[in-house]
Amino acid sequence: MEQSRRSTKRKYEAVKNDLYVELTNLTNESNKLHTDIRNANEDFFLMCKSMAERQADFLTQALFLEEKYGEVVGLLEGKPKQGEGESSGENVVLPTPYADSFARFAEDSNYSLKGHGLLMAEEEKKMSQLFKDYEEVFNENMKVFGERAKAIAGMRTNLAAKLTKFNTSVHIPALSD
Predict the structure, then answer these.
(1) Which of 22, 6, 116 shows the shortest CA–CA distance to 61?
(2) What are 10-43's pLDDT values in tens digits?
């Protein structure tokens, strides 16, 4: 009987030592994941804030550009430039290739602006698609992460029950910790 009790005590001590190591590792890994998620949330917040600020800059630039288009169209319609009175262009000298032909300058400017419009439309589509793609990826990853979090919560509950049972098991001799 005494030998059986010592054998049970040795098994208990061995399991207790293994549990100490495994629970310490599990706790450390759980804490690391929590810290990584918290840091990622902070990073994600800063990225979103930065992107929102960049988009606000784009919108401001777009509004300014719309205003400039309106001013140029207004000049062609014979409307005076608002807010500044006379044109500030009297001191501007056209480059030599355009000095002889304003039509060439206007045509080149129109060609450049059309190209800019195509590039802007293309980049806007790319940005829009990029946000859609990443939104889908983020949503899918969050769905999977949510499932994993639920699974971990279930395992945490199961582990807590098993630890309680282990600590109160009638098969283990009373020991002082």
Answers:
(1) 116
(2) 888 888 899 999 999 999 999 999 999 999 999 9
State how far the Cα of 28 lies from the Cα of 66, in Å rounded to an integer.
Answer: 56
Which of 19, 42, 39, 43 lies closest to 31, judged by CA?
39
Token pair for residue 59? 């919108």
How many other C-beta atoms are found inside a 10 Å radius of the C-beta of residue 113?
13
Place of tokens 């399991």: 15
Q: Are 81 and 75 in contact (CB under 8 A)?
A: yes
Tell me the pTM: 0.64
Digit-coded pLDDT (tens) for 54-89:
999 999 999 999 999 999 999 988 888 776 555 555
3-state class of 147 per DSSP? Answer: helix
